Amino acid sequence: MMLQATEYEPQSWDYFVDHYADLERQKRDSKMVYRKSDGGKYVGLSPPADAEPLGVLYPRAGTLGGCSTHNAMISVYPFENDWKYIQELTGDDSWEPSKMRKFFQKLEKNEYLPSSVVGHGFGGWLKTSLTSLALVVEDQKLLSLVIAAGTAQGKVS
Fold first, then answer.
1. How far apart are the C-alpha atoms of 53 and 33, rounded to whole Å?
2. At what angle are helices 80-90 and 97-107 packed, to 10 degrees?
């Protein structure tokens, strides 16, 4: 139900961001969202003339579990450059990438790699694991999307 959860209005907090300060450059982003005059939304490069630019959608959730309801509980560790940017922006060396990696290692309870792998934690509270591929087979809609994507790429016949 994760795909439906992102559009479930009672818990959906839609934030729109600009990837560029220049609106004309922002409008060249294929993920740009516009509010149409009828209240609907348009995503893409050719909005109706009277559409109001909103930005790129960053869905968030106001619910127990927070944004994990929207993002299917996916954990993504940031690139080192993201930590460096925050470090430079704040002038605070506690954001230094190797320090942030140590924090991540403390909170992670990795369940998909051998404990000898460097850079991951194995005793924290945040469980990280791989999704069972059996879930794809059990969900007929998802399975059809995977097969269609493979067919389009010439990987399935």
1. 6
2. 120
Neighbours of 21 (CB within 10 A): 7
Is beta strand 32-35 parallel, antiparallel or unpaired with respect to 41-43? Answer: antiparallel
Query: What is the rounded distance in angstroms from the CA atom of residue 9 to the CA atom of residue 59?
Result: 11
Of 49, 72, 46, nearest to 59 by C-alpha is 72
CB 101 within 8 A of CB 108: no
**Residue type for 108, please?**
E
Interstrand relation of 32-35 and 52-61 (parallel, antiparallel or unpaired): antiparallel
Task: Using DSSP, state whether 66 is helix, strand or coil.
Answer: coil
Does the pTM surpass 0.70? The reply is: no
DSSP state of 33: E
Give tens-digit pLDDT for 27-85.
Answer: 999 999 999 999 999 999 999 999 999 999 887 777 665 666 666 667 888 899 999 99
